[in-house]
Amino acid sequence: MNMSDTQPSLKRSLLYRTTTGEHYKQQDGGMLVAQFSANDAEQAKRCGLLDLSVARRTGLRGKNAPSVLSEHLPGMANTSVIQANFAEQLSTGEWVLRLGKTEYWVLSSLTGTNASLDALDQAASQTADCYPLYCQSSHAWFVLTGDYISEVMAKLCAVDLNERVFPVGKIAQTSVARVNAIVVKQTYQGIPAFSILSDSSSAEYLWLAILDAMQEFNGQAIGADVLTV
Amino acid sequence: MPFSLLKYGLNKDYPFEKHADLPAPCELKPSYDVVIVGAGGHGVATAYYLAKYHGITNVAVLEKGYLGGGNTARNTAVIRSNYLTNEGVKFYSESVKLFQQLSNEFDFNIMYSERGQLTLAHTDAAVRGFRQRAEINKHFGGRTELIDPQQIKELVPCLNMNPADMPILAGLWHMDGATARHDAVAWGYAKGATQRGVELHQLTEVTDIDVENGKVVGVKTNRGNIKCGCVVQAIAGHSSLLAAKAGFKLPISTFPLQAMVTQPVKPFLNPLVSSPSLHCYVQQTSRGELVFGGGSDPYPLYNSRSTLDLKESLLANAVELFPFMANMRLMRQWAGLTDMTSDYSPIMGLSPVDNYYLDAGWGTWGFKSTPIVGQTMAQLVASGGQVPDLIKPFAMDRFDSFAQVNEMGATAASH
Amino acid sequence: MKPSQRLNEPMGLLIDRNKPVQFKFENQLVSGYAGDSIASALIANQSWLMSRSFKYHRPRGPLTMAGQDANTLIQLGGEPNVLADRQNISQDIQVRGQNYNGSLENDKDAVLGYFGRFMPVGFYYRSFFKPLGAWKKWEGVIRDKAGLGVLDLNFKPEYYDKKYLFADLVVVGSGPAGLAAALKAADAGATVILVEEQTILGGSLTYNRFDIEGKKAQTLRHELLTRVTEHPNIQVMTDAVCNAWFTDNYLPVIQGKRMYKIRAKECILASGAYEQHVVFRNNDLPGVIMCSAATRLIKHYAVKPGNKAVVLTGNDEGYYTALDLLEQGIEVAAIVDMRAQAQDPILFASVAEKGISIKQGATVYEALATKGNKHIKGVDIRQITGKGQVADTAELIDCDLLCMSAGFMPAYQILCQAGAKLSYDDAAAEFNLSGLPAHLYIAGSVNGIYSLDAVLKDGEKAASEALNSLGLSTEPVADVNCDKKVNYDWPIFSHPKGKDFVDYDEDLQAKDIVNATRLGYRDIQLVKRFSTVGMGPSQGRHSALPTARLVANATDRSVTETGVTTARPPFAPEKLAHLAGRIFDPYQRTPMHYRHLELGAKMIPAGHWQRPAYYGGAGERDKCIQLEADHVRNKVGLIDVSTLGGIELRGPDAAEFMNRIYTFGFLKQPVGKTRYAVLTNEHGVVIDDGVACRIADDHFYVTATTSGVTRVYREMTKWNAMWRLDVDILNVTSAFSAVNLAGPDSRKVLEKLAPEFDASADAFPYLAYRETNIQGIPARLLRVGFVGELGYEIHVPAQYGEALWDLIMQAGKAFQIKPFGVETQRLLRLEKGHIIVSQDTDGMSHPGELSLGWAVNRKKPFFVGCRSVDIMMAKPMKRKLVGFRLPADSAKPEEGHLVIEQGEVTGNITSCEYSPAVKAIIGMAFAGIEQSEPGSKIGIRVDGKMLQAEVVSLPFYDPKNSRQEL
Amino acid sequence: MKILTCPLNGPRNISEFVYGGEVKDMPDPNTCSDKAWADYVFYHDNLIQIVKEWWLHAPSGYWFIAERHTASDEIIKTYDPSEIYNTRIEFSTQQEERA
Ligand SMILES: Cc1cc2nc3c(=O)[nH]c(=O)nc-3n(C[C@H](O)[C@H](O)[C@H](O)COP(=O)(O)OP(=O)(O)OC[C@H]3O[C@@H](n4cnc5c(N)ncnc54)[C@H](O)[C@@H]3O)c2cc1C
Ligand SMILES: NC(=O)c1ccc[n+]([C@@H]2O[C@H](COP(=O)([O-])OP(=O)(O)OC[C@H]3O[C@@H](n4cnc5c(N)ncnc54)[C@H](O)[C@@H]3O)[C@@H](O)[C@H]2O)c1
Ligand SMILES: Cc1cc2nc3c(=O)[nH]c(=O)nc-3n(C[C@H](O)[C@H](O)[C@H](O)COP(=O)(O)O)c2cc1C
Ligand SMILES: [Zn+2]
Fold first, then answer.
1. Of A199, B18, B109, C855, which has the highest C-beta tally within 10 A?
2. Do C577 and B8 touch (CB under 8 A)?
3. ipTM of this model?
4. Residue C60's Cα: distance from chain center in Å?
């Protein structure tokens, strides 16, 4: 089944025609593949790829961005300063990425209501010297999972992403298969993963390029449920 | 077998004459009427025409390395005149005409090979630009047509008409497009010039320029100082360095430009083929190798190292254009230093220093102009600074008056 | 083909005798074993002839058995120029020789060899062009003889890819030097990648003999390999060629169908040395091979290279080779040692003891050939009487194998690519390398170290240097010395009848090199270019040393002064497939892309995007465009403009920043209004345009052209890195998807779409900017008039783009809405006289020439390019962009046709279409300034004929602009 | 391939970066001579020396300054532009002086 047969929502991943699965679900106002096949859990551990483009994320920058973040994102309260090009998962589940001197992105926990992200956007747009970014639409969000993630990325990206030098929480803003991307090392349910955020207009291209690189490891698309349950 | 070869077979003592082509090294004289810096094609062609048409032979051509070892040795030898501006087309057309006679004039075969050049349009903007170039060319008597995909297929049946999802919409077919043994052009000129009395000094680097009262009076070299009546600087990639010694700046930046060659295979590609959108052009030489060229390096540098990333992207596009070439093997990759101007046209004529003549800014397109550069620079020198009409538009001071001769559209990656 | 003869085990390291493999060579069935190269399988079957040489079509067989020469280039199916001694056999492959006319055995072009003396070096420069025009004829004849293999033009590329690898240290070469280096570094904790071109590790340990007993190599190899393969820090890559050195230790390594790009902190080159040939007459006959080729055949493949051998040597290695031959039952008729005596007396004595005749101070002057030069059948041996001189008396010996070793040339290529310098040591008669960049080291025979113990030490020394640099050790590094001399200083014996090859690839003989210098080509670089020495597929691996010696000698210079020609990448020929890999050609899609396809759009590329040109078949362009245009003029149309660039400027200085970047004034632009924005570069040339919306006092949203936005955005951020204004600049191109809803009925569609939104002319007038919500989608609305009708640009977050398209198409159904494409839009805007930057402008157009003076504010202190614009606009203008028209039935000029005035080209057509609204052919063109006033005539040449068009004022359509302002 | 160290992102292949031209001072466009302006726009030192240049790390959109040797290609150092450009730049109107 193809998602275009089921796509009822206004909000769509630019990739929805290309992603297929056995089950779909509503997420943050759009549809995504919940389960690609019964084999997802296995596949995720080995080599999986999923499209989280409709899932909630936001970004902000400017001199006052750090203070807006710490005031309006509850999980930030007891989080120490994040270094540039590092990410941290908050106790509340969100991942906060620091991309520049004053630039932060927040990836939703995939489980909650995202009320905090809405509040954050609201506050950012009302604070001087704090500018909301449009990463929800400007970027696609893929997650590459499993034991082979750095091997797959080594076919697409010139930055050394091996665990030894690129542990969980590290970010590379770099070029993946010749498109600009933000690569974040994470774990989901103990599975090593890279979140890859890149220009939404080339999402289809990049998705296919990553899948192509995964072939060697019997990589496959997976559904989002494996990240949360 | 042509008769001329028989004499080699019948005579034991080949070569009959020592230094039949190029003279033995000799001492520098204390002074010359004309010093030409740089024994690339342009330098020796200037010397040749000075001697041949103007009887000026008290000339030294000074070369820091070996004859023709700069860009003349490195260029992909595309000869064409299908430029965009009136000034450009007139100028390059004259050059092409001279090229056609050179072997017989030199008594030395430069292997001028009239293959035709095909430039591919993948965008409608390119189609518009090509039409304009075809029209301007025809206007000045050149043989250039805008052709359609069907005609392209007939000319080069092995071409992929939809490379990299950029369908080929049209082609600029330039029948005057040609190639030649690039080294032989420099050798032929050097031979002709030195036989007429010009001195060629290799391994002689000009290290400084002596200017008195705004006028050049001599040059310093690693082999001593010499006086001279005038200087022609024809040193391509090093232009700014010497101009600085003479006391002025040029509107030039120096970028490496790379090229590469495959192992030889049996001939299958007659025309020169170029795709500006894919930054790639190719020709098959008379030895059967494919020579590839593409875009300049992305930043200025005085270093002719080559890079992997340029090779990768250029050849990926080559494989898009000619998929079967995936099976060919690359043998060598090299680079030259190109002197780029902002309007992609050369700088010829007078300089801020009296009697110091400029031939620079040839960037990626100066091999094809070698004969006409030689002729016009010789006229300029012989007349004591009267700039020939053909090169007036290329004066350096055009930049001061914001009157550029814009050839950008006709230059990128097609040489 | 004769039956295969193989030696007993343990010979045959590389082959698996349990796996027979059959293939075809020149249509004959050949049997070999898995692990055999094509060359070894053929020689096992006593078939030595593999190819024909480039110029003289001489029969050629293997020289090195290591892929270092070009003598074994064969045709493998549709693939030309494959090295028979590198390519392994597999079942049923079809192999052929190359470069012959007729058959490999009976090549009609072999006759060229007999005409050799009519073809001295560079003969083609001296002939074929007289009289004028003759060359045209000869050129074809000569070209037909060019090239080696034949390309299959129908070949479909296979799956090749690339991968990056990272390591503390890369060691290139797994000979004793490389193994010792890798182990030492790995033991100290460095991560090591060991790269070896051959299929097994060990380098010379796999084929070379290092002692009289012949045991040492095997024992040592076993010991080192055990440690290497078990070492957790060492990643071994075999059958992997390191093909170049690029800046900062960036090393392409080709293995299988993949190119690895290794980035190493440190790199050790332990790439060994190439055994060198002796120059004498007929040194290219099949059966004349390097000593190491013979031992490789024996030890790697268990192939007996001959029955009766002569060894010609300039070092002690030849004596070891003789021992290897003897041990395998090959008669050694003689060792011909060019030196007066051997270096190692014990070795000499033990060889002499075996009864081998040793001729000292002698050389092979000529190899004697079987019919057709197919194989060696004997040698003419003479005493050496001086440098390159021999006695008149000859001793003839029959043999079917000649093994030679004139010495070694370090594998210098990769190091020279890294900037190392070669200098010649006269005493050792060899080249040395020096001047390596930081983080690159050298070990073993490439470093001039030849005795095995010293080689191992040298490997460890290089490892210490690397470890020190990595901070993993602080050990002092001691020099390693070696006094083993391996090079004979003048192994060149020219023969009056020639065929004494210096360069096998290019069929160049000793006299060719000398004659090039005599003609005046004295510089080694000129010798190369004139004679083509070193320019063949093996790039001078064997010709560089003898050429340097010959040129030095002929021009009275030292070999160091003469030098060798520049080594360039790649190290070994590399397939284009490897370099291309997976071809990453990113493309971009608008969210509405698939809707256009569903609607049958003819798509055209726009940068990396695809856009609908019009909706309909490729053959119906004009009709489709005119219908679509008509629809927009009379009803309502919809176009996807998502590819338009978008940039947001926010912060207190947003307006000040806009004011500096664009030509117009923006400080006083009212909130809620849009304004045309033109951008010039520092040269004063118009490079982009767009529409600026002022969303708030401190917030602008400005569009840019599809192809221009990246550059505009970069320029903006760069300027502000200097200006330090308090403004945030963000490229939002991909964040927004947009359409232009245009036509008299567009307001009705909008009203239906967003019922709560007040779209009335008063509430939302021409050039205004508004925000609203369209059925749940947040939207930015711009009332602009690019196509000259009532219309709205609607910008929404990209994730809603497709839904927006669907909603509008649905809402528009009642009004017969139709999509239109870019080509239609181009016609519509032409009718309105709007320019498209880069179509109606060129690299020289300043605002004055484009009649954009109104969009340039000269009251403000600065904008980028302002001074250049002033300078250019102060000069008399030479040309101007004008509108012109021609009757509907006239021939239609095409974009790019010329405007000609009294025989002079004064301009060109930039845009031209038939306009159904104006019912005439309309267009824009650059025209000479004298013809630029409305009412003037301009001459346009179309298909060779001149047309006279009338210059008219713009716009062509709805001059009062009443329709867009409805 | 050359490695360039981005002050924000660390060492990267130079192919991730975009060359942005020399760091050069703009003469006052309102008061300088035409020749001085042409000099600024078109002319370059273009010598063998260490130069200051603009470089953009494209994936992060970050401009910085690098000091590089134009013959060895060695990169001496890289730093944030604020080390040179640390104050807001203003342009003054000098209407009268402009012809
Ligand atoms: C890869 C590549 C491909 C190209 N392809 C084409 C093409 O297809 N068609 C085309 O028309 N053009 C092409 N060009 C451009 C063309 O090669 C040059 O424009 C042309 O060769 C310039 O000739 P020249 O005689 O002026 O300079 P060069 O041949 O470079 O000669 C200048 C000489 O000056 C010497 N010199 C420098 N400084 C000094 C000094 N201080 N003292 C003494 N001597 C000095 C140098 O050593 C050099 O030998 C290409 C260039 C390159 C690099
Ligand atoms: N008989 C011979 O031909 C010969 C040649 C060289 C060395 N030797 C002897 O070997 C000893 C030296 O050992 P060593 O370790 O210096 O050299 P080595 O020849 O034993 O090892 C060099 C290894 O490097 C590999 N190699 C070279 N370039 C490569 C590349 N670009 N990519 C991947 N692999 C590459 C070769 O395949 C070879 O296996 C000395 O005792 C010397 O006398 C003999
Ligand atoms: C048109 C052309 C064809 C070439 N063909 C070959 C060739 O067949 N073999 C080769 O080794 N080099 C070839 N070269 C490259 C030269 O060997 C050399 O790399 C180039 O002149 C630059 O000089 P350099 O590498 O010594 O710096 C060719 C160069 C040109 C311009
Ligand atoms: Zn070029």
1. B109
2. no
3. 0.96
4. 30
